[in-house]
Amino acid sequence: MLSLDDFKKIGLEDKPVFDTHYRQFPPSHSGELFSTMISWGEYVEYHYVLVDNNIIIVSKDKDGEVLHHPSGKFNEDLLKQVMALSIKENAIFGFIKKTEKNLLSAQYPSLTFVDDRDYFDYVYSASDLAELPGTKFGKIRNRLNKFTKNFAYITEEISEKNMEEVNEFLKRWCLWKDCGSDELLENERKAIIYSMSHFFDLGLKGISLRINDAIQAIAVYEKMNADTVIVHFEKGAPDYDGIYKAINKETAQRLRQQVPYIDREEDLGIPGLRQAKLSYNPHHFIEIYHVTKESLRTTTV
């Protein structure tokens, strides 16, 4: 029977395990990515276990523990063990994607699911972000045109040659945002620092945008599956109105030849961030759900 003692805290040395697993079972949500979990490890503690070709994650933050739906080939016995462990530990059984929710609903009709809207990933058409077509992108195009009229810029790939400059820019960005005054921003700062410190180990890629020979914006991304690249971080200097529109479009123009979709992660329920992500007209969402503890306890597994 599955126990929390079976789980190991995720470390950088575990990347080959996840790489091998995800070649067979590609992830589709930002929270499943090894780079996400390892980078945000100070904010959310992640442990995992590999059982019968399934990876199971347990994540823990100040609000408690969540046992994630197994990733891998469907295994009913293992699924029952995860649900039983959730009951035993009074943890949430969650991180359930829509296809998994539909299967669980059919098998266990008494389960009650709650959508975790704050953690829905926003997925966009790469071509839409690259071209900004039609009236629905009119306001974004207007701000972008104003930016390009006022500021000459160039873009370049993030590499060993400019990594020091990128890190200096990120220090300035955190001073502008006063990261220390906000818990989420401070933990995002730590996640970015970790990601940039292990940029090549994690297989990340990115671009920077220069104005007057100084880096003023960056985007960091990686390929998530055959159809999708995920943008983990996108940061710009506040002195240049429209710079986020520029780095967004430049990123999409580079990626559109590789994949049809760009995942820009969740909004965490932050009103301004939600409004900004919706303004780019997402193609679809990767929906996430959890099971209520009461319905889980009363379901025979």
Structure description:
By secondary structure, this protein is of the alpha+beta class. The strands form 2 sheets. Strands 1, 2, 3, 4, 5, 6, 7 and 15 form an 8-stranded mixed β-sheet that branches. It starts with 7 loop residues before the first strand and ends with a helix. The relative contact order is 0.18.
Outline:
The chain is an alpha+beta fold. The chain has helices at 15-24, 34-39, 76-88, 98-107, 126-131, 138-150, 163-177, 183-197, 243-255, 271-279, 293-297, and strands spanning 8-9, 45-51, 54-61, 64-68, 71-72, 92-97, 113-115, 121-125, 153-157, 205-211, 214-225, 228-236, 261-263, 284-286, 288-291. The strands form two sheets. Strands 1, 2, 3, 4, 5, 6, 7 and 15 form an eight-stranded mixed sheet that branches. The chain has a seven-stranded mixed sheet with strand order 9-10-11-12-13-8-14, with helices on both faces.
List strands and helices in order, with pairings.
Blueprint (H helix, E strand, L loop, with lengths): L7 E2 L5 H10 L9 H6 L5 E7 L2 E8 L2 E5 L2 E2 L3 H13 L3 E6 H10 L5 E3 L5 E5 H6 L6 H13 L2 E5 L5 H15 L5 H15 L7 E7 L2 E12 L2 E9 L6 H13 L5 E3 L7 H9 L4 E3 L1 E4 L1 H5 L4
Parallel strand pairs: 4-6, 12-13
Antiparallel strand pairs: 1-2, 2-3, 3-4, 3-5, 6-15, 7-15, 8-13, 8-14, 9-10, 10-11, 11-12
Helix pairs in contact: 7-8
Brief descriptors of the model:
Aminopeptidase; 7-stranded mixed sheet; 8-stranded mixed sheet; 301 residues; alpha+beta; 15 strands
